Structure to design on (141 residues):
């Protein structure tokens, strides 16, 4: 029997650039963008230190289209997904590795209406769930 494992990532951060939306040869939407998360702490002298991590995000299908249309550089988002590492050969033939977050849930935070969307085709196939107390026709898309 196989042992159980979990590959789950939850991030809240700010977009480093507008998403790049493209389509595969068979018409599948793919969006890629990066978000920054920042940790802060006080060192032994009491000075505040910060460290920023950059995360490469990949979204597919309807979620990719939502990202391409509604997300902008600097916007704060909540992303859920899983970590995937892939390899490729650079121009010199050296193997390179890149780690990405494959998003399956997104919530737009701050400045927006907090709209949530996911790849689970809930809410009549759109994947868009209005925040509590908000009607569907109040959504901007």
């Amino acid at each position: 029997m196989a042992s159980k494992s979990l590959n789950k990532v939850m991030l809240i951060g700010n977009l480093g650039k507008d998403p790049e939306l493209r389509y595969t040869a068979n018409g599948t939407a793919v969006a890629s963008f990066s978000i920054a998360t920042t940790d802060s702490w006080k060192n032994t002298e009491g000075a505040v230190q910060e460290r920023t991590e950059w995360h490469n995000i990949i979204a597919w299908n309807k979620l990719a289209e939502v990202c391409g249309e509604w997300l902008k550089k600097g916007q704060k988002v909540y992303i859920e997904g899983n970590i995937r590492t892939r390899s490729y050969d650079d121009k010199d033939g050296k193997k390179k590795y890149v780690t990405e977050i494959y998003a399956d849930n997104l919530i737009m935070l701050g400045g927006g209406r907090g709209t949530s969307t996911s790849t689970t085709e809930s809410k009549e196939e759109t994947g868009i769930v209005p925040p509590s107390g908000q009607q569907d026709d109040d959504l901007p898309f």
Observations:
- Confidence is low (pLDDT under 50) at residues 120-137.
- The helical segments are 61-70.
- The chain is about 5% helix and 50% strand.
- The chain has one domain: 10-36+48-138.
